[in-house]
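QA checklist item 7 of 12: single-chain prediction sanity check.
[x] sequence parsed
[x] length recorded as 307
[x] structure emitted
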Amino acid sequence: MDDKVIITAAITGSIHTPGMSPYLPITPQEIADEAVRAWEAGAAVCHIHVRNPETGRPSPDLNLIKETVTKIKNRCDVVINISTGGSLGMTIAERLQPVILFRPELASLNAGSMNFALFHALERYRDFKYDWEKAYLAMTEDFIFPNTFKSMGEYLEAFRSTDTKPEFEAYDAGMVNNIAFLIQNGHTRGPVLIQFVMGILGGIGAHVKNLVFLVNYARRQLGEFHFSVCVAGRSQFPLGTQSLLLGGHVRVGLEDNLYLERGRLAKSNAEQVEKMVRIARELGREPATPAEARLMLGLKGPDGVNF
């Protein structure tokens, strides 16, 4: 399946706020509808966060997560990847509960601590829909996203017990070292799946040379592995295209980028997936189906989840 590319759609995330785009899905129904549209457009995986349906604020509410993923699973066979990032400021226990309770096929596992900064968005956005948005962004000027070796070990223990495959989120080269350490000490085994996350203030910048470096560095440190690339902001499609050229996979979606092209907001996640599918096919890569993605990544299948 060397010509197959796994396209992930990150549907809503916890970075962008409702005042930034009228197209950001908020309610479980909206998120589920967007996930199904993305699947119809060619996404094999959907990455899921949830939000308070009244205010649009990122939420750790397990009932909202269950409602959302159940609605998706009842309508299509997309691989559901549940976030353990949740929203800023959640405890480790809160972040891990969706894996323990819902036993997804795939879930994110952040591979190290970092300054996770969104406050600079206030230079661009000044008019917000809800009172919480400005304070939520501003507080990240003094925020550390904690992912210690102790907590990563706790995560991986839960992932093993639920037969959930971790998608390691690597925001910088040091996190590749962390993953190598976890493999060498028996906390997980390869070939691992890494999502290189680029363009977040506090992590590695979104540049082609940085991506080539990360991929080559991970090959030296890890040997065989699967990788995908997601990029915050306007470099989403250029670096996603570079990932295809390097033999990797790609993530798009409104979690990472609100635009389809310069000056034009994406009206749905499906629009971004459709664009990535066109690019992939021009490069001789065909979007993998969910069944093919499950085979490529060694996932347990939808019958093994608890929703």
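[x] summary fact logged: The chain has one domain: 4-112+146-304.
[ ] second reviewer sign-off
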